[in-house]
Amino acid sequence: MGQVLKQYINGEWKLSGSGETREILNPASGEVIAEVTEGIRADVINAVAGAKAAFYDDGWMDATAVERARLLFKLADVLESRAEEFYKLETTNNGKPIRESSVDVSDACACLRYYAGFTTKPHGVTYDVPDDMQSLVVREPIGVCAMIVPWNYPLLMAVWKIAPAIAAGNTVVFKPSEITPLTAIKLFEIIDEIGFPKGVVNLVLGDGPNVGDELARNRDVEKIAFTGGTSTGRSIMKAATTNIKKISLELGGKSPNIVFADADFETAVDYALFAIFCNQGQVCSAGSRLLLQESIYDKFIERLVERAKKIKVGSGFDESTEMGPLISENHMNKVLSYIEIGKNEGATLACGGHRITEGTFGNGYFVEPTIFVDTTPDMRIVQEEIFGPVLVVQKFKDEKEAIKIANDSCYGLAAGVFTNDIAKAHRVIKTLRAGITWINTYHPTYNEAPWGGYKQSGIGRELGTYGYEEYTEVKQININLDVKPTGWFSK
Ligand code: NAD
Predict the structure, then answer these.
(1) How far is CA 354 from CA 224, 256, 272, 388, in A?
(2) 152 lines ligand 1 (CB under 6 A)
(3) Which residues, including other chains, have CB under 8 Å from residue 450's CB and lie 6 or more apart?
(4) Is residue 410 annotated as a catalytic residue, yes or no?
(5) N or C: which end of the chain has fewer CB within 10 A?
(6) Strand pairing of 256-259 and 436-439?
(7) Which atom from ligand 1 is nearest to the alpha carbon of 462?
C-alpha cells in the first residue's frame, strides 16, 4: 500500500489527529486499493475555523466574481485534461462501468463551466416603493458552507455542491462518503495546484456519525448541503438546529415510471431497463417502480425480462460490461435482504434475485438484475428505497389509477410517463408529486434545470439558478432620497 491519503485543511494536507486510517476497497474484487486518514470532530473544527477565517478575515468575502469564475474555469480545464485518470479511479473505487464514470467526469467539467460562467451573471433588483426611497435587493454569499455527499456519484456530487457554493462566493468544507473518497481527494490536488486561497475549499474525511455530524452541528457552519438517505437527512436537520443553519437536502426516492398502452413499445421497454439498472440501480431518481397499463402488462413483462436477462454484469473495466458490482458487501446484503422480503411478502420473481458468485465474481459484490411482479401497494419492496438493481412492477387500469398508485409514496423525487398522447402526458405530469419528471424519456438531467424532490425526497434544489440561490442570502437595502428628520417624535 502506498502512502496514507490525507485531508486538505486550510491549504495543507493533514493526517487526522485520530492517528487512525481506513482501507478503501474495490467493490468488483474486494481488494484494498488505498488507505486514507480517518478524520474526527477536531479535524472538522480546524477545517471550519480555516474556512471562517478565509471568508471573514482573509478577503474571500470580497473576492470578485471574475476571480471566482477564473478559478472554476481553471478547475474544469485541469479536470478535463486528466479525465482518464479520474474516470479510471472512479470505476476502481465505485465499481460503475467506465462508460458511466467517463460521463460523470465530463458532466463534472460541464457543471464547473456552467457555474464558472454563471458567477458573473447574477444581478439584483430595485423596487419602485412608496416614499422618496429607493429599495434594492442584492444576493450575498452565506459564509461557511459544509457539504456531505454519498457514494453513488462521488466526483459529480462533489462538483454539484462545490461549484455553485464557490460561484456564490462562499467558503467550503466538503466531506465525501467514507467508502468512496478517492476522486474527491484527487480533485483537491487540483484545487491545491491552481491557487485557491488557503481555507477557501477544505476536505475532511471520515464517517457520518462523527465527522458528518460535526459538520451539521458546528455553530460556525452557516449552511449545510446534504445528499444521501432520508433517515440521515432527518439526523442532519436535527443537528443543524444548534445555530439554525440553512439546509438543503437531496434525499431518497422510489420513483414511478408509468407506461401507457399507447406508448412506443420498444422505446418504453428500453427506458424501463435504463431507469432502474443504470449505475446498478444505485441512483436516487431510479425508476424503481414500473407502472404498466393492464392491456400491455403481460407482453411488456415478457420483453422486459428477456432483455434484463441479457444485461452483461461484470467488471467496470471490461468494455462490454453493462452493469457493475454494488458498492459494498454491506449494501449488497441490504439489497439481497430486500429480495428475500419481497419473496416473503408474496411478490413473484420474474428474473434475477441472486448474488453472482461464479469464478472471480464471488470476490466482488455482484447482484443479478432483478424484477418483481404480482406486487401490492402495501409491500415493503414497493414502498421502501432498495437502491439496487431491483425493479417492482405495478399494474393499473386507467389514467386515474396510474396517478393514484404513482403518488402513493412518502417520496417525491422523480417520475416518468410514456405515452404518445401528449395531452395525457401533461395531465399526468401535472398531478404527480415529484420534482424531476420526464415524458418519453428517463434520467437525463441538465446543469440549467433544478434538481430535487417533493415530500421526503428533500428540501431545496441543486443546479441551475435555483442551486446557486441555495448558497446565497438575500439582503434589502433602502436608500433615503430625501434626507431630513422624520418628525415622528416631538422635538
Ligand atoms: P447515507 O445517508 O448513508 O450517507 C450519505 C453521507 O452522509 C455519507 O457521506 C455519510 O458519511 C454521511 N452521514 C451518515 N450519517 C450521518 C450523520 N448522522 N450525520 C451526518 N452525515 C452522515 O447515504 P448513502 O448510503 O451514502 O447513499 C445512498 C442514499 O443517497 C440513497 O438514499 C439515495 O437515494 C441518496 N441520494 C440522493 C440523491 C439526490 O439527489 N436526491 C443523489 C444521490 C443519492
Answers:
(1) 38, 24, 20, 12
(2) yes
(3) 435, 461, 462, 463, 464, 466, 467
(4) no
(5) C
(6) unpaired
(7) 40
Query: Which atom of ligand 1 lies at the shortest distance from residue 453's CA?
Result: 41
Candidate list 90, 178, 250, 470, residue with the active-site label:
250
Give residue-wise pLDDT tens across range 206-259: 999 999 999 999 999 999 999 999 999 999 999 999 999 999 999 999 999 999
* Cell digits of residue 371: 424484477
- Specify burial of residue 346 (Cβ count, 10 A radius: 0-12, 13-18, 19+): exposed
Angle at 316 between CA 114 and CA 77, to 5 degrees: 25
Contacts of 19 (CB under 8 A, 6+ apart): none
Give the type of residue at 105: V
- Nearest CA, atom 8, ligand 1: 177
Please pick, among 100, 284, 351, 462, the residue that the annotation labels catalytic: 284
CB count within 10 Å of CB 176 equals 27
- Name 417's bridge partners: 258, 439
For residue range 159-199, what is the model confidence (pLDDT) as tens digits? 999 999 999 999 999 999 999 999 999 999 999 999 999 99
209 within ligand 1 shell (Cβ under 6 A): yes
Q: Specify the 3-state DSSP secondary structure of 121.
A: coil
pLDDT (0 to 100) of residue 1: 63
pTM of the prediction?
0.97
Per cent of the chain over pLDDT 90 is 98
Non-local CB neighbours of 192 within 8 Å, separated by 6+ positions: 8, 11, 13
The rounded Å distance from CA 157 to ligand 1 centre is 11
Q: Which is the closest atom of ligand 1 to the Cα of 253?
A: 34
Instruction: With a cut of 70, list the residues of the chain below it in pLDDT.
Output: 1
State the pLDDT at residue 122. Answer: 87
Record the cell numbers describing residue 114, joined without a space. Answer: 456552467
